């Protein structure tokens, strides 16, 4: 395949023969060794840049570019120069765990800008800014002073901490939270603008790339990908983006969720912006080649043709280079068969790219958990921006997006249905966002039973404490009970899945929190519950799977046809059936008509095409 890219943090030996073997045509390399070179003297950094230029001359068929650092490493890697301001944690003490240096430190920023000037001046065509470009962990005095300067609000550190992390913030705390994240966004974007000005003053053709980071950075640092693209994207020097499409390990839940997150960002980024899809094996983690290959295939189906392989030393451990060489023809064939113009179909889990008001990683985890819950039970699911909820028949709303009350209320007023988990209901209740007749009333123990009202055998739950919240009907509203929670004696102790009429729409409440629900919720029982939920919402999915669990369908519409990718996360061959309004399912690669029972190799994908009726 012609579109493999490679990034690594080790300049000393990036295994040029190996990557040539796999068909890599572009590198992003840290001149030193990523985090340690963060504290390197700029004179030494320039020498490393020149060495890299000389080494690149040995392989003219491969373009060599820069992986640019913007933050400091964790404690123990490098020594912080005395002139840098150390970051301060919520307790007012030095925080060495991540980054060490305050993001807003002007001395640190000045040194970084000089590096960006040098690499552009030396003629590098691209610089990919690392995925730690964020202002997450610092609550230092300078942050508080800058906050006062920007907003006119004088606050103490603990006031900010309380507002940012409050489960049920007061009106003042809610306003303070918005101001705090807005302030951090302004400073982050201001530094991005300085990088752009510095790079393009030195070289108008050097392109600047953005690495979309982990959810906790997106939530807590004012990060906004669309704003960064606007800053970096210039005529003759187009911005480019590395999507977060990879999980460091073989863990199914995370792979399922991160593929969906990457596809969401792929959908909201302007079409004329170049994309790179990350696939990697993180340092200190284990991930085998089949999982890496699965991520590559999924991204090709999403339409992302540039695959960025990361962490070379770990890739070699699982013999990636030789295996990619063997499979290049197959991967190229898949890439060429995927239609360019296609629309994802599925149960929409709402995201909010411009929301910086969530209080940490757990809120995005709600949305990621929802993707895994519906997807791994065999229903097509997609992530969609809350701004487009009016176009959806049903929508999954979590704590990440529920603060968009005005948009959601208008959607319900026009007859829409939303699905929420118990943690979202609890957030609604504590923050008085909507007046609902069903309330949360504390946690239930990890061991209890759920029973649907059409099933004779209850399901045993075994989820960690805090996942299941007790639900109570406190009003006279005509609610519909889909299931109930029972104790070991068979007595009902809580509502289960519950449908609430609201305005002209419906709110369907699940008794558990998405962020804590892992493998135990992938069962035939839960398939049945999801079917009932969708019936209540008057939503008919384009297809659903029967048979083995942990096979996730991704569906795309292309004119009057659909493209379906079945992702088998199981470590053995799986067999599924498809219930669908579409007809004539055929293997995309061979054209062979599929039988009622479809077999999929372990840790692999199956590509199907069909006609819409």
Care to give the gist of this entry?
This protein has 613 residues and is of the alpha/beta class.
Care to describe what's here?
The longest helix has 32 residues, at 171-202. The chain is α/β, with parallel strands linked by helices and 613 residues long. It has an eight-stranded parallel β-barrel, surrounded by six helices. A five-stranded antiparallel sheet has the order 9-24-25-29-27. Strands 12-13-22-21-18 form a five-stranded mixed sheet. The protein contains 16 helices and 29 strands. It folds into three domains: 4-340, Glycosidases (TIM Barrel); 344-541, Class I glutamine amidotransferase (GATase) domain (Rossmann fold), CATH 3.40.50; 545-611, Immunoglobulin-like.
> What fraction of residues sit in β-strands?
15-25%
Uncertain parts: 356-362
CATH architecture of the largest domain: Alpha-Beta Barrel
Please state the CA-atom Rg, rounded to the nearest Å. Answer: 25 Å
CATH class of the largest domain: Alpha Beta
- The geometry reads as globular
User: Helix count?
Assistant: 16
CATH topology of the largest domain: TIM Barrel
| Count of discrete domains | 3
- CATH H-level superfamily title of the largest domain: Glycosidases
Could you tell me how far the N terminus lies from the C terminus, measured between alpha carbons in angstroms?
A: 35 Å
Question: What class, by secondary structure content?
Answer: alpha/beta
As an assembly, this protein is single chain
What is the strand tally?
A: 29
For the biggest β-sheet, the strand order reads 1-2-3-4-5-6-7-8
The helix fraction, in percent, is 25-40%
Average pLDDT score? 85
Can you summarize the main beta sheet? Answer: 8 strands, parallel, barrel
């Amino acid at each position: 395949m012609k579109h493999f890219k490679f990034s690594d943090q080790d300049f000393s030996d990036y295994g040029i023969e190996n990557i040539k073997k796999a068909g890599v045509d572009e590198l992003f390399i840290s001149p030193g060794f990523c985090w340690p070179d963060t504290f390197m003297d700029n004179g030494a950094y320039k020498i490393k840049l020149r060495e890299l230029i000389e080494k690149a001359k040995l392989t003219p068929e491969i373009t060599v570019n820069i992986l640019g650092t913007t933050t400091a490493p964790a404690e123990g890697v490098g020594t912080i120069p005395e002139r840098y301001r150390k970051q301060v944690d919520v307790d007012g003490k030095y925080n060495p765990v991540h980054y060490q240096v305050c993001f807003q430190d002007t001395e640190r920023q000045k040194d970084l800008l000089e590096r960006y000037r040098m690499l552009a001046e030396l003629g590098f065509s691209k610089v990919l800014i690392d995925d730690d470009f964020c202002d997450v962990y610092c609550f230092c005095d300078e942050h508080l002073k800058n906050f006062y300067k920007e907003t006119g609000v004088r606050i103490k550190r603990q006031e900010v901490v309380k507002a940012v992390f409050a489960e049920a913030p007061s009106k003042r705390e809610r306003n303070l939270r918005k101001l705090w994240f807005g302030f951090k966004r302004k400073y982050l974007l201001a530094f991005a603008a300085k990088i752009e000005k510095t790079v393009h003053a030195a070289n108008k053709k050097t392109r600047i790339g953005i690495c979309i980071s982990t959810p906790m950075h997106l939530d807590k640092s004012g990060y906004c990908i669309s704003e960064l693209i606007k800053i970096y994207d210039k005529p003759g020097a187009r911005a480019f983006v590395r999507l977060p499409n990879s999980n460091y390990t073989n863990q199914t839940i995370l792979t399922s969720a991160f593929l969906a997150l990457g596809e969401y960002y792929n959908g909201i980024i302007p079409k004329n912006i170049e994309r790179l899809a990350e696939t990697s094996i993180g340092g200190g983690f284990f991930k085998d080649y089949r999982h890496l290959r699965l991520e590559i295939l999924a991204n090709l189906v999403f339409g992302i043709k540039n695959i960025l392989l990361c962490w070379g030393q770990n890739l070699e451990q699982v013999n990636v280079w030789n295996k990619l060489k063997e499979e290049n023809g197959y991967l190229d064939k898949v890439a060429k068969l995927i239609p360019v113009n296609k629309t994802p179909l599925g149960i929409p889990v709402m995201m909010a790219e411009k929301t910086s008001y969530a209080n940490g990683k757990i809120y995005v985890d709600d949305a990621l958990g929802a993707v895994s819950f519906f997807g791994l039970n065999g229903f097509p699911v997609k992530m969609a921006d809350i701004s487009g909820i009016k176009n959806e028949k049903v929508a999954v709303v979590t704590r990440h997006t529920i603060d968009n009350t005005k948009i959601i209320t208008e959607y319900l007023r026009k007859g829409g249905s939303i699905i929420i988990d118990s943690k979202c209901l609890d957030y609604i209740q504590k923050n008085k966002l909507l007046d609902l007749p069903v309330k949360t009333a504390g946690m239930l123990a990890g061991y209890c039973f759920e029973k649907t009202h059409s099933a004779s055998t209850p399901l045993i739950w075994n989820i960690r404490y805090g996942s299941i919240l007790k639900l109570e009907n406190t009003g006279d509203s005509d609610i519909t009970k889909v299931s109930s929670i029972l104790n070991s004696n068979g007595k009902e102790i809580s509502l289960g899945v519950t449908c609430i009429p609201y305005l002209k729409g419906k709110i369907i409440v699940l008794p558990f929190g998405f962020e804590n629900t892992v493998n135990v919720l992938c069962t035939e029982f839960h398939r049945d519950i999801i079917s009932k939920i969708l019936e209540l919402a008057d939503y008919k999915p384009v297809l659903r799977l029967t048979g083995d669990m942990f096979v996730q369908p991704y569906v795309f519409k292309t004119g009057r046809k659909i493209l379906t990718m079945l992702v088998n996360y199981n470590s053995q061959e799986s067999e599924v059936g498809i219930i669908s309004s579409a007809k004539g399912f055929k293997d995309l690669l061979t054209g062979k008509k599929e039988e009622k029972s479809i077999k999929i190799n372990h840790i692999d994908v199956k590509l199907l095409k069909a006609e819409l009726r």
